[in-house]
Design brief:
Layout (H helix, E strand, L loop, with lengths): L22 E5 L3 H7 L4 H22 L3 E8 L7 H24 L3 E5 L10 H10 L7 E8 L1 H17 L10 H7 L10 E4 L18 E4 L9 H12 L19
Parallel strand pairs: 1-2, 1-5, 2-4, 3-4, 5-6
The structure holds 3-methylbut-3-enyl trihydrogen diphosphate (IPE) (2 copies) and magnesium ion (MG).
């Protein structure tokens, strides 16, 4: 029987756990092009993309990753045709309705980043329910970036700090990088060690600009609906070979010349 339409069994062994990043963030891109390449409507790409989300979350849990952030909908994605926006919001709602119980069983904690003001009344309660239901879970933290844009997030943090100064709770010269970090939506979440973008595009598209100061980047050519456990583990293995210096000197021993 043809395996078409069935997910192939993966035999990729786990990446080395000692070199695992703590936080991986993914820009899930290429749903539309995946569909287009098959002569399908864009919505089919988004639907298949949800399956890739499930597989990636399971794989992250399997290796014991602490944080996985997924860019689900940007503050700029409202510029898309209304039908596509409705479709994407519908898929997010369906994902939370269908998968929340399962995520909870997997001990996954859900957090949502992005602007919550002016969200439609059918979506905000679902996001809050996902956070509330899973708030005491201790395995993977799944951070869903929804209505998220980094510049908007930084501007909201600036407003909150400015109000504190205005109302006398804070002095302007007490503002530090770490205080700004505490006012971002990602407060309490470590910066991403690794940011993966699928579909071959090599840009951040307003994602985690502040938090990405020392992140490693990986741009993979595959469209998001084709992302899989194997591609995820292979990215984690490549990450282990990166030499992160944070402005200092390498912690890795340098091989002697000629050795
Ligand atoms: C990612 O796929 C999904 C979202 C941005 C919500 P796209 O819809 O951007 O797909 P392409 O980039 O047009 O192929
Ligand atoms: C980034 O992808 C947003 C998400 C993945 C949710 P886009 O497809 O919106 O980014 P651009 O417009 O190609 O930069
Ligand atoms: Mg895109």
């Amino acid at each position: 029987m043809s395996p078409a339409g069935r997910k192939k069994t993966s035999h990729m062994p786990h990446p080395e756990l000692s070199t695992l990043p703590e936080h991986v963030a993914i820009i899930m891109d290429g749903n539309g092009r995946w569909a287009n390449a098959r002569g399908l409507p864009r919505t089919m790409g988004h639907r298949k993309g949800v399956e890739a989300v499930r597989e990636t979350v399971r794989a992250a849990g399997e290796v014991g990753l602490k944080y996985l952030t997924l860019f689900a909908f940007s503050s700029e994605n409202w510029r898309r045709p209304e039908t596509e926006v409705t479709d994407l919001l519908g898929l997010l709602k369906a994902f939370i309705r269908r998968d929340l119980a399962d995520l909870h069983r997997q001990n996954v904690r859900v957090r949502v980043i992005g602007d919550r003001q002016n969200l439609r009344s059918d979506i905000l309660p679902l996001l809050l329910e996902a956070e509330e239901t899973t708030k005491n879970n201790t395995a993977l933290t799944l951070v869903i970036a929804f209505n998220y844009g980094s510049r908007d997030e930084i501007a909201r943090a600036a407003i909150s700090l400015a109000k504190d100064v205005e109302e006398g709770r804070l002095k302007a010269d007490q503002i530090s990088a770490s205080l700004i970090g505490q006012r971002l939506d990602t407060a309490g979440i470590p910066d991403p060690d690794l940011i993966i973008r699928t579909s071959g595009e090599e840009r951040l598209s307003n994602f985690l600009l502040w938090q990405a100061a020392y992140s490693e980047f990986m741009f993979v050519p595959d469209y998001w609906p084709d992302f899989s456990r194997d591609l995820f583990f292979s990215a984690l293995k490549k990450y282990a070979e990166r030499d992160r210096r944070f402005g200092g000197l390498s912690a890795k021993p340098i091989a002697a010349v000629g050795s």
